[in-house]
Write a structure and sequence with these properties.
The protein has 23 helices and 16 strands. By secondary structure, it is an alpha/beta fold.
Length: about 575
Amino acid sequence: MEIRKGIAVSPGIVIAKPMVFDSKDFRIPRRSITASQRMSQVKRVRNAFAEAINELTELDQAHSIEEGKIKDIFAVHLRYLRDKSFRKRITDYVCEELTTAEYAVSVILREIASHFENLKDTYISERAADIYDIESRLLTILLGEVRQEVEDLTEEVVVIAHDLTPTQTAGFNKTYVKGFATEAGGRTSHTAIVARSLGIPAVVALEDVTTNVTAESMVIIDGNRGVVIVDPDEETLDQYRQYALDFLRLEHELDTLRDKPAVTRDGVQINLLANIEFPEETGQALEKGSMGIGLYRTEFLYLTSGSEPTEEDHYKAYSETIKAFKGKPVVIRTMDLGADKLPSRTRYSAEINPVLGLRSIRYCLQNLTLFKTQLKAILRASVLGDIRIMLPLINNLQELRQTKMIIRDVMEDLDEDSIPYNSSVPIGIMIETPSSAITATLLAKDCDFFSIGTNDLTQYTLAVDRANEHVATLYSSADPAVLQLIRGVIHDANKAQIGLSVCGEVASDPEFIILLLGMGARTLSLAPPMIPEIKQIIRSVTVEQCNKLARAVAGMDSQRQIKNYLRDAAMKILPEAF
């Protein structure tokens, strides 16, 4: 039995067989196979070589004779792939070392490439690049098989990976993928956010977890405590089966709160809205008692489609969501592409630091055709219900005014075509950077509402990449600097008499709810599965209790002290959640 401690990012407990999900961009970890599996792995190697030869042959025939250099490269690659001794080194390694096909390909081809690189003959040393290219092609084929297996699952599994993209996570079939664990990531990485939205238990930032899992393993993922257990003994299995039953019982008890108001013991109404990525999530949001949508992450329209969404694709998705909520508010955030949210057909060039690069509103302002297509669909849908437009990562007044000018341009286009829309549609911004938080008083004059995106606000305030497992422990929204900014934004919004919500993952965290209420927040937007739990906390406190806690926290000087204090307060109210 091996116990690994990581970061809990999505609650719940699951016990299942693992499916390892590798990436060709990451060194494939060694995984053992049984002697009876040797021939099936050898067959996979042979099939991968055959498919690679077919791919290159088709590419070769597609190029004209004039493209001699390209044909020369294809010829070199084909020569290697048709060399039986080359393939035999790999299949021998599979049989002798009892490893998976992808691991054998990675080891043998990198050995050959390294040997070439160390030779003094320039012509031969340059062949190393060809070997790496062949390795990449073979791994793409082999790992594609694994991805197909995930799509064609017929039994429950947990996915184990070095990392997962938000798109991969969103594409999991919840009927069979019951949880996941990754070596990379942080609590507020977009992959973690998707997991919470889907209600899939998940733990991230686990060092080398992929190397210790075999096909015969049993895995426990504890998304409450941030623990992954590989090959648990019977006593541990029995213990966790009971934990899982207790957690399920708590969920059912909290679901009885669905139709009850989120009101404090002294009568203060709190608005609980849902964060969603897809129209299909509206059902779950309503089931959990959501009073509307506080954050519709529209970029997933781009991430889950094989082509760029059209205006009609946008309109259909938005109108479906609006109709489901029947007059309740639906806040649509314009596309927040960039950083770890890139379409597979991306036109982005590689950036040294994408988190600080061309993302979100910056990308929209440089790709106006794309942006206007989305805005046109949102405005068309605005006559169907209470739609509000939210602009992400607005950094200063100039960006806000420039974006509003573009919205006015789109309105004029709709007027010319006599297409109806709500000319008074509320326009708000996400406060996600220190610069926007510090200048909130100025920004409030030009928008209708603020939504505090605590994930990016924490990341940019503390200079910590929230998806980087190496610095994940430094990321904390309980840091005094972050809390001071949040407190200031709430104050400035209330003073300007504009709407204010908190839509980052802090709003889904039971530990922070009392503090947020004490700071003056009255609208929270969170992952649908967390709504009952948060409602229970709200219904268990008075505003005076919350104010007292907020005053106490304001006098503390370290995130650890604050975090412990908040956790103790929440545990007294809802101990089962911890």
